[in-house]
Amino acid sequence: MSKPKIPFNSAMKSLTNEPSMRDELSEIERFQNERGAVFFHDMNIPFKQWQLDIVERAECIHSQLSWPSGMTVFAERANHKQLGSHGQYLLSIKAMIERLKKPTFLICSKSWQNKLQPHDTQPIKLYGHDVLLAIYFDTRGIISKDTEQLTRELSSRYKSVYDFSCGYGLSIRPFGYIAGSNIDKKCLDYIRKEILCKGGNAE
After folding, report:
1. Where are the domains of the chain?
2. Which end of the chain is more exposed for a tag (fewer CB within 10 A), N or C?
3. Domain 36-196 CATH assignment equals 3.40.1350
4. Whole-number Å distance between alpha carbons of 170 and 191
């Protein structure tokens, strides 16, 4: 089983790849420039208008969802009290998708389909793990067999993206304009330094 070669914020020890500079990162709430924007946000809290204004710039939504056990890991790592249950988290995601009506591609578990109610699904690999790709508002179909291929495929199709669980930006790096949110403010600072200000990508 492979693991990401660049920083990846995962709850699984076998996949997580913390940047060596994490201890030096600041906790930031928000940053924006011509390359994109990041902001602190918990999906179980309603979006503020300025946050929606940022999200609206994205042509698509692409995110890897947190598993129930992962919510605790991420919250502890971020020193954040996670609000609501995992079920509420899924329903908040579904409500956001229905509100924005943008092409959306989520990496998730097969067992969450009843709450997420995707328009289409297909199996996909997440670094060797069998997971599900949930698709909304897209009629062109996806040919990618794993999440790395998926990110490249979507970035060739769409110029801009929003990831509401952006971590260190693994799934959004190749896009021309990126919008990301997360509960981990150090992740946001990493994206600010390494992607938004340096123009870094996945290549």
Report:
1. 36-196
2. C
3. no
4. 10
